[in-house]
Amino acid sequence: MKLYFNPASPYVRKVRVTAHEVGLTDRIELIGISLTPVNPQDGLRASNPLGKIPALILEDGSALYDSPVICEYLDALAGGNRIFPATGAARWTALRRQALADGIMDAAVLTRYEEAVRPKELRWQQWVDGQFLKIRTALDVLEGESLGEAFDIGTLSIACALGYLDLRFPGEDWRTRRPRLTAWAASLGKRPSLAATAPAAS
């Protein structure tokens, strides 16, 4: 299998952490790519018409996208119920947390594009403020949750979202006033799959 990736992408990191956790890292070849909404890559669009990463090319040449689908595919390929709880309340909690974490990533990535790609004279501060409101509100919700020791697609996604905030917005200091989330993230960050996929600027 081949994975289109960029080391800074939190969505790609979700896939790579999942691959580590289910023992499939050695079966995935990484294809590095650099792109923005105004710098599409034809090779990637041939596999994913949306032109987004991650995209996973399977052994038969077909493609899967994006991170929720790829992560669940890898979990199923490894036998299932490793990262995605199979049924019941645990599954719905994990999927809800994944959606919340993906929303944080969406808002953060859009803000990154606004600040790094859009011409300075066209930037819209109120729009950026609106994205950060989403991020901060979501983090406040997570501060109130009992995340515990379970490592599933929900908590995995939260860890990747927090890592991206640290990478791109260190001045945000999300840890202020969120001691429970801070302690949880520090403990989880020691996990080998997260340490091996720590984000790098690109």
Summarize the structure.
This protein is of the alpha+beta class and 202 residues long.
Topology of helices and strands:
Elements: E1 2-5, H1 10-22, E2 29-32, H2 42-47, E3 55-57, E4 63-64, H3 67-77, H4 88-116, H5 125-143, H6 153-168, H7 179-188, H8 192-196
Parallel strand pairs: 1-2
Antiparallel strand pairs: 1-3, 3-4
Helix pairs in contact: 1-3, 1-6, 4-5, 4-6
Task: Give a description of the structure.
The chain is α+β, with helices and mostly antiparallel strands and 202 residues long. It folds into 2 domains: 2-77, Glutaredoxin (3-Layer(aba) Sandwich), CATH 3.40.30.10; 88-191, Glutathione S-transferase Yfyf (Class Pi), Chain A, domain 2 (Up-down Bundle). Helix content is 54%, strand content 6%. The chain is built from 8 helices and 4 strands; from the N terminus they run E-H-E-H-E-E-H-H-H-H-H-H. The protein has a 4-stranded mixed sheet. The model has no long low-confidence stretch (mean pLDDT 94).
